[in-house]
Amino acid sequence: MTLDEAEARDRADPLAPLRDRFSLPGGIIYLDGNSLGPLTKSALSRVRSVVAEEWGRGLITSWNTHDWIDLPRRVGDKIAPLIGAPSGTVIVADSTSINLFKVLAAALGPGPGGLILTERDNFPTDLYVAEGLAHLGQHELVSGDLHELLSGSVRQMSGSAMDVSRRPVVVLVTEVNYRTGARHDMVDLVRRAHAVGALAVTDLCHSAGAFPVDVTATGTDFAVGCGYKYLNGGPGAPAFAYVAPRHLQGLRQPLTGWMGHAQPFDFAPDYRPAGGIDALRVGTPPILSMSALDAALEAFTGVDLAQVRSKADALFDIFVHDLPDGVELLTPADPKDRGTQVSLRHPEAYAVMQALIARGVIGDFRQPDIMRFGLTPLYLRFVDVAKASGILREVIETRAWDRAEFKTRAKVV
Ligand SMILES: *Cc1c(COP(=O)(O)O)cnc(C)c1O
Fold it and tell me: How far is the CA of 136 from the centre of ligand 1 (A)?
């Protein structure tokens, strides 16, 4: 697409005004919002006032006067409509990893001997947390191809493993693969999990805020997701956890901290779980970062995620339309089979990405040979993506990446 054509698309784009909600540095094209969302103007001013006023002046009284204590619930209720959840079913707390531990444990229930089925190419933290929990609770973890696992071969693998009358079974699935951008059909997977008597735990890290998500329609039992990716909550922003209404009553999880107690300020010696979603709370909420996430979510006010999705698809088409030789598209071409990132394969992916970053196009690298580009329509213009695809072509065709300085790996990639 020519830059003139891209500019015409931007003029006709109903989402174009949303870019003004962000505070983006000049001179760069940011294609890494799938890894760390950029700063919103609302978060910037909110963090300033929370630090200077609520903390600086209000001090400890702000727990009440600024209702810090219920922030995890309030921010959860702001995320709820983005994932198709009713109010009161989402809490914001801790990190995705920790929330995963809590909901997996809740899904498995109190006894030992449960079975966790997950994908071999799931995000590592999902695998590690499941492994740690399996070890702790004497559960069994089986990772592989979920479709195969659910279509019965697991029965041969582990005898009567799927006999749910004998053991709880939990299927842990990440909707969009962080490496390839491939997306599962969640309605189908959850239905198949339920058909074998299993509960479904869904990781929405690369879904929430990227496209319409509907946990109610998919019927997932539990879900977790990230605050700092598509939700733009800031580095290390707290994560969210969703519990289907049918599991809220009597909800139990093993990280029984005082904030998940029914009456934390009774300071009773024995734990009594809070009712509903608050039972997933553990300790004191990080008010500064939770306020940043709260304010950042205002970027979604009045936004139709279906429109966001269709713009992301249009950006995808522009970006992959005419890839240079030697670059392979790893992400499924069919929109229903993918999220909103583009993953490209190149033998020198790390160096190519460094050369792109040196030219102001920021994406990231994943082992062993993958470049990822997040297409985030709230702030990306058609002209940005058209330019980025031209710069990628130039870097590949001129071998601009072939310099020692682009091949030294940093600690964080
Ligand atoms: C980003 C991501 C996480 C991050 O977990 P943290 O605990 O926030 O570090 C977890 N799972 C998936 C699928 C992710 O993409």
Answer: 21
